[in-house]
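Hi L.,

As promised, SAM-dependent methyltransferase:
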Amino acid sequence: MDVKMLATSARHRSRTTATHARALARIVGNRQIPLLLSLSKNLATPVYRAFFLTSAAGHGVLRTLAQGPAGADELAAGLGIPGGGDRLRSWLDIGVQLGDLGFGDGRYRLRSRVAKALSRPENDAVSAALEEVVRFHATVLLQAPAMLRDGRRLSLGDQDGGVIARSSRIVQPFIEEAIARTLDRTSPVRLLEIGCGSGVYVRYAASLNPRLSALAIDLQEEVAEEAAANMARWGLANRVRTRHGDLRALELQPQFDLVTMHNNIYYFPKAERTAALERARALLAPGGRLLLTTSCQGGNAGLRALNLWFENADFGGPLPHEHELVWQMERAGFTGVSATQIVPGEQFRAFVGTNAHAFRTAQA
Ligand SMILES: C[S@@+](CC[C@H](N)C(=O)[O-])C[C@H]1O[C@@H](n2cnc3c(N)ncnc32)[C@H](O)[C@@H]1O
């Protein structure tokens, strides 16, 4: 290279460096860049993680990786994806980038504490609760203003009964505490559970009282079928009958000592709750009791999103206020109605009322 060429190259390099420096100054001076970086770290990344983990848990990938590291081809085969794992890699690599999966020697493994925890069967309710947030709460948060503007509403079909039955178990310790406080443990008890979901609370009641027999009903056919399968699996099929049905249309004689409704009063529109409670009361023998547990108004962001979902549904209504539900139970003919906050600070209540007069009807 001669002297002239050297000089030209040096001039070019210094022009390039100056161009880079000016570009950098423009970028650093742009106020949107720090905002973008902050959003990416504090908002977008947690959202991506929530979505990735929901998908990985829901498709069984976390459970598979809990057995040991696996390659993309093996994971693709497990998921029934034809043609190997090449196209699944982009999805898996996002998990690696987010820190939830690790990768080495051509195989993926669980890495983050959250991914490991969600892979455990005993944390299934938490996994389902995350899925509820991602699939249903996020949808209503995104769409509520437009739905209100366009007069659109959510319907029961916009939910996934199986996921909701699993996620509802997040409050299992509270509900079991309420059942333990209410249930007679020695006399024979005829229990009617309305909206039984997976059936875990009937199982719990049956475990506390060996003389208890039950009818468990659920509005959604696939949920009732799952509950029936669970009863058989738990060896309770001879004590618990399971039926697909709606409380409002159920043809039964008043015969039950205890009626339970867990996590479903908001499946009834506010104006129809007294009638639904009256229907539940009418199925109780004289002296029988209703135990109703529910999240109430005023809770955390998750409960407010749940409230928003049902407020915008065409079949349900908002979470109840404690005083309002007590009043509705009294109007439905229950006596001695009590409301108990089972866990201090949590907006979760157990309501108990007695059917003193078997055939008393609600006033207007
Ligand atoms: C949020 S899930 C709760 C399931 C279960 N009770 C639990 O706590 O795990 C509410 C359930 O109530 C059922 N349900 C709602 N309205 C009902 C009705 N009118 N009659 C019977 N079941 C009903 C739904 O189908 C759903 O499975």
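Confidence is low (pLDDT under 50) at residues 360-364.

Thanks again for sending the construct details.

K.
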